[in-house]
Amino acid sequence: xxxxxxxxxxxxxxxxxxxxxxxxxxxxxxxxxxxxxxxxxxxxxxxxxxxxxxxxxxxxxxxxxxxxxxxxxxxxxxxxxxxxxxxxxxxxxxxxxxxxxxxxxxxxxxxxxxxxxxxxxxxxxxxxxxxxxxxxxxxxxxxxxxxxxxxxxxxxxxxxxxxxxxxxxxxxxxxxxxxxxxxxxxxxxxxxxxxxxxxxxxxxxxxxxxxxxxxxxxxxxxxxxxxxxxxxxxxxxxxxxxxxxxxxxxxxxxxxxxxxxxxxxxxxxxxxxxxxxxxxxxxxxxxxxxxxxxxxxxxxxxxxxxxxxxxxxxxxxxxxxxxxxxxxxxxxxxxxxxxxxxxxxxxxxxxxxxxxxxxxxxxxxxxxxxxxxxxxxxxxxxxxxxxxxxxxxxxxxxxxxxxxxxxxxxxxxxxxxxxxxxxxxxxxxxxxxxxxxxxxxxxx
Length: 444
Hints:
By secondary structure, the protein is of the alpha/beta class. The chain folds into three domains: about 25-60 and about 245-345, Immunoglobulin-like; about 65-245, Rossmann fold; about 350-435. The chain has helices at about 5-25, 80-95, 125-130, 140-155, 180-190, 210-220, 230-240, 340-345, 350-370, 375-395, 400-415, 425-435; strands at about 30-35, 40, 45-55, 65-75, 100-110, 110-120, 160-170, 195-200, 220-225, 245-255, 260-265, 270, 275-285, 290-300, 305-320, 325-335. The protein has a six-stranded mixed sheet with strand order 2-16-15-10-13-12. A six-stranded mixed sheet has the order 6-5-4-7-8-9, with helices on both faces. The longest helix has 24 residues, at about 350-370.
């Protein structure tokens, strides 16, 4: 049998297996990889495990109903083109929903108004009319706007929908609770109700720390939109995710055998104990990979020995059937005294992900240094990470890493004079940091 026919046969087998697996009601699989499959023998070692969750696209058009609340800023700064584009984006987003879906629209300035109470989108013409009637004025009661949207979502929580709040703002929250910690606490409480908040910041005047914390704690997405002309595209990307949720209430529980100890979770938040790690995700999207990186310490192994180092159990709710599912995987590693074997066992994909996530964390630290008035120190840090990314781009033949390096270097150049980081640069770095760690799909 020639190579082509073998490949075709393999494709058929894999395709059949995936179809059967999805039909059996298990939309999520777990993979575990180490940054090296073979470690040096005779001494304790450190390694990084990548726990990947792959959510398959459903084979049919069946999907869970969506319970969507749009929260639109109508403060005075939204006048003109911003508001027109926001209205256009909101209407186009709602047009992508189906008759089984629910939608509500909340608008806010210094006051909050439920423009469209939670209802079926069958009456789309009337909903569109109300959205087009929005006028801009006043200040920004952002916290109250999100809280009111959550109240609309709660009217249908028992229906087991995919619950999402999509928040748009172009300004500082200046009415009511208005700090990142305030919004983070709100995000935490909403996540417990399986309500994710996606934030869209428009222009260069909104508070990116506040918006990012709200998205992070509720496990939503976040976007920085410098031009309001991009709003329809951003809203379309977000609705695409919402319509493609295949698993909810996801927990990754990683247990380590005697002698193996977790050292840190790279990028993501989670709970770490001496012999276990737990990471929670709200939702998985079909066709997308989500992963976590955990650095571990492994006791010495003898030449030729192989041992398990971690077992991951992933528990989730099937979004289509509302039934609980579970999948499990174990990772093992071998030991060798031969340097070439250790070197050749390197996993380029995992090592690339480590570099990218560490660089995202460095962006967050550079922002902190800038905020302390240490712009030159921030520039040094960004240049160092840009250099690492360029090396990784060459080593792993990954042009996207070079693009990331270029962005960090451009930011560093802006700060080398000691001037504060420009607002647009800060927002772009903050959004990129979160999108990288959250494995949020690119929209450009």
